[in-house]
Fold this protein.
Amino acid sequence: MRRASGPDATMRILRDLPTLRAELASLGPVALVPTMGALHAGHLSLIAAARREVGPGGVVAASIFVNPLQFLPGEDFDRYPRQEEADLAMLAEAGCDLAWLPSVETMYPPGQASTIIVEGPAQGWEGTARPGHFRGVATVCAKLFLQTGASVALFGEKDWQQLQVIRRMARDLDMPLRILGCPTLREADGLAMSSRNRYLDPEARARAAALPGAMRAAIEAMARGTSPAAALATARAGLTASGFTLDYLALVEPETLLEVPAPPGRLIAAARLGSIRLLDNMAA
Ligand code: AMP
């Protein structure tokens, strides 16, 4: 076991399962924040929420694992940002008690043959754009829940469909933990924080806030009585004119992700600026 070097020098940094289990056996209830690293303020807001959930006597655990199973062939698994030292310092600073950093071999031992397939909310949208993605997400989250014995796991609303998929899985498989969704943290101009935003060149970064801008405008137009079809068509046209390639912009039932004709619902979007794919969603 190695100690963190950040301001809170008591954070435990663990990489193998027997040590994790031995460590956790003697500690209080665990709140888990699963991440792929390249941390930003959005992730740290989940750490703060985790502390609120378990209190000073509980364990706030964060996992950092870039999960190969949730990347499709040709996606950015190799290019995904990795910055372990900086992430560990940020976690320690944020008051995290335990960082869980399994290797790919620890997570997926040779011969691994079991995965979890969620249907329902995993179908459509990201499920269509990235076939197999949610199988990878569900499988790694189920393993992280079992590895840590967490009593609560915290996820960002930023990845709305993912949050619904994990909730569905936990409910369907009687997993003994709560799944808590936390609000999306945004940059000053409204762009949802994301580890991949760093890959936007300055010109694309300046344009990126048009996505949440168009979504907000559509929601306000619908609230003023504009038909949903017209409000969404205006948003799509505006985004295309701003250089986005839209994968989808849709109004859906928040839990099932099935399309609804009018609010209330969740407005979900995926749009590409060059090779960078942005995701966002808002209550509508
Ligand atoms: P990732 O490292 O991208 O897999 O994200 C790890 C967790 O952080 C997921 O539950 C995300 O939904 C959440 N997250 C990512 N970006 C944000 C954000 N801007 N605000 C709040 N949570 C976020």
Notes: The longest strand covers residues 245-252. The CA atoms of residues 56 and 118 lie 35 Å apart. Residues 195-278 form a domain with the Pantoate--beta-alanine Ligase; Chain: A,domain 2 fold (CATH 3.30.1300.10).
